[in-house]
């Protein structure tokens, strides 16, 4: 895309998420990605930003969307939570505003809203990859449970559908299962894991994407049967390291869950900002363009990131370790 005359007003970008790190550690990760981007990525210096907290809630998400529309946003990024994104997406669609989300996995976002572009795997991809992995472990009987979030419920449904398609059996009671799966947000996932182990269960337990975080905690030395399916990273070591180097340069620490997806989204935003496009042009640009970023090429197929991958982690005594590629 060509550069735009500096006299033109900058792209108006709404940013929404749950911003309180006391509520979720992912808030800090997202804000750090924004800090890295605004310090290190050319093209964002003239963006006009508007920040509104969506409380990871559908009603608040819809309220935020109305504010962004009234502000005449060209584009909205964020809505980490599937709950908030589901509340906001129909309003953005009606207003012709594209939504870029780095972490909301719920399937209906892209299936029902052609204005949404996702920088992470969808529920159906997470579910299909999880079920394939369960099959390789020869765990045919699966107990599926979810928290009460829209994210957890929808992912639980997707996992159940994937089990049926693969010929694996969903069972009603944990005692009937070869493996248990819990779909949900980080805090309920951590509490469920702790409760199952405190109850004496040693059965394999798989948690889902939001739990792929250092804040999940470390497993006891004797607990080798806890796993997390989460977002993958590119095969290229150079692409993986780029995000880590940028994070270390400002924060002297390793990046956490959703940092890479957020930074990838911000690289694409910078390219769009440099191109001088506005709200009406952006959805088609996202549908039909390939964006070459330091973290890899970005293009979308019906709103889904073509390069999205998953991997499986285990929370050992020293923290999360990746066990699949």
Automatic annotation (TrEMBL):
Keywords: Receptor, Signal. This is Amino acid/amide ABC transporter substrate-binding protein, HAAT family. Gene3D superfamilies: 3.40.50.2300. PANTHER family: LEUCINE-SPECIFIC-BINDING PROTEIN, PERIPLASMIC BINDING PROTEIN OF ABC TRANSPORTER FOR NATURAL AMINO ACIDS. It holds the Pfam family Peripla_BP_6. InterPro entries: BCAA_transport, Leu-bd, Peripla_BP_I. The keyword Mitochondrion does not apply. The lineage of its organism: Bacteria, Pseudomonadati, Pseudomonadota, Gammaproteobacteria, Pseudomonadales. It comes from Pseudomonas congelans. Residues 45-187 form the Leucine-binding protein domain. It comes from the Bacteria. CDD domains: PBP1_ABC_transporter_LIVBP-like.
